[in-house]
């Protein structure tokens, strides 16, 4: 499996773990300095985001992936994933969104780790 394929699989794992609320699984995919930028512009550390997932602030029910594009540049990479997601966040009801995640990654000890993600719609 090539590096691009490995990174594509990490993106799919990321969504599976979010749906399962697998906090430790998600943490294993993130670098120590990971941060998430929500569509609203709010920036959250990994700990803040995972706490919100664990306490029900963020609830993800399904994700169907329309497109995953990976670029590898040595020990750094970028990924743009487009997925149709069903979720309920910040106390709202279930909704369907076409979410685009723009991720950066870094290779640490031979393993790819997400360093940031920026959410938007497509």
From TrEMBL:
TM segment ranges: none
Domain DUF4440: from-to ranges: 7-113
Pfam families per the UniProt record, alphabetical: DUF4440
InterPro entries in UniProt: DUF4440, NTF2-like_dom_sf
Highest taxon, organism lineage: Bacteria
Protein name: DUF4440 domain-containing protein
């Amino acid at each position: 499996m090539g590096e691009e394929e490995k990174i594509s699989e990490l993106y799919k794992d990321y969504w599976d773990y979010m749906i399962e609320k697998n906090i430790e699984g998600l943490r294993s995919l993130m670098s120590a300095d990971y941060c998430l930028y929500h569509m609203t512009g709010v920036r959250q550390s990994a700990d803040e985001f995972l706490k919100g997932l664990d306490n029900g602030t963020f609830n993800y029910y399904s994700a169907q992936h329309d497109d995953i594009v990976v670029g590898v540049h040595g020990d750094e990479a970028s990924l743009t994933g487009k997925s149709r997601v069903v979720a309920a966040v910040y106390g709202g009801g279930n909704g369907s969104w076409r979410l685009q995640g723009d991720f950066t990654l870094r290779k640490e000890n031979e393993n790819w780790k997400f360093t940031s993600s920026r959410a938007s719609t497509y």
